[in-house]
Design brief:
5 helices; 129 residues; elongated; mainly alpha
Length: 129
């Protein structure tokens, strides 16, 4: 799932704007006018996916060092995707999009770390019946 989210983000932010349809298409409108929302949503999913993976891997708890490492790697990925957009036709790098990436990542990780242990316990309890 982590690899799928990684690939989805690459496709969503690095696809040339001309491939998103005509000027009136919903995808192009979202890409051009509400790109911060798209970025935040993608990185909520990415941060959440990685956060849930950390929770399920460490059954007794997640070390702060792993969460910090995950946040640094995701932030670096967010930075690279913004810089890479400079070379894509119809795309541009924007500080607002990068901030949305970081806020989305923080939100996704926080949600996963808060809810993940409860979900993990529920799945384990149902599986052991």
């Amino acid at each position: 799932m982590v690899v799928a989210m990684f690939a989805l983000i690459l496709v969503a932010v690095l696809l040339p704007a001309s491939s998103l349809g005509g000027q009136e298409s919903l995808l192009r409108s979202l890409s051009e006018q509400q790109s911060w929302f798209v970025h935040a949503a993608l990185f909520v999913g990415f941060g959440g996916t990685i956060g849930f993976r950390l929770v399920t891997a460490g059954r007794s708890g997640v070390a702060a060092s792993w969460v910090t490492a995950a946040a640094v790697v995701i932030a670096a990925f967010a930075t690279l995707t913004e810089v890479a957009q400079l070379g894509v036709n119809g795309r541009n790098a924007a500080i607002g999009d990068w901030i949305a990436d970081l806020l989305g990542m923080i939100g996704g990780l926080t949600f996963a770390l808060a809810v993940g242990p409860l979900a993990n316990d529920w799945v384990t309890a149902r599986h052991n019946r």
